[in-house]
Specification:
mainly alpha
Length: about 130
């Protein structure tokens, strides 16, 4: 995924620690981006099954636009992560709106369940499928 450039940054004895930190950061960011992707896709599914009694059409359209924009931003961030020669991070200014959007999706899911709206099953995520 990323090169070993992080282990070649300094001449002191912390080269393995620096490489380990880069791998940890890359793994955490990858997992976080995958979580956002999952929830943005789930949000689109929830919107497709959401009646006006749970959320008015205008609010659904606004949420759909937010999900579309966030999904495009997420795709760009994921592409940059893949292209980066070393581990990278994202600023909180980027992550906070995505986090708020996920909270909105969770709220919509709860409202749909309270209204007893039938929803498709949540697909298993790769890490939930167990060893291959």
């Amino acid at each position: 995924m990323h090169s070993d450039d992080s282990s070649q940054q300094s001449g002191n004895g912390s080269q393995p620690e620096s490489a380990d930190a880069g791998l940890l950061l890359d793994g955490l960011l990858g997992s976080l981006l995958e979580d956002f992707r999952f929830w943005f896709e789930r949000g689109q599914v929830l919107l497709a099954h959401c009646p006006d009694t749970v959320m008015p059409a205008e609010a659904r359209a606004d949420l759909a636009l937010q999900l579309d924009r966030a999904s495009r931003e997420l795709a760009a961030a994921s592409s940059l992560r893949q292209a980066a020669p070393t581990a990278m991070a994202l600023e909180m200014g980027t992550l906070a709106p995505w986090h708020n959007l996920v909270l909105e999706i969770w709220g919509l899911s709860a409202r749909l369940r309270l209204a007893e709206v039938p929803l498709p099953a949540v697909p298993l995520r790769p890490e939930s499928q167990g060893p291959a």
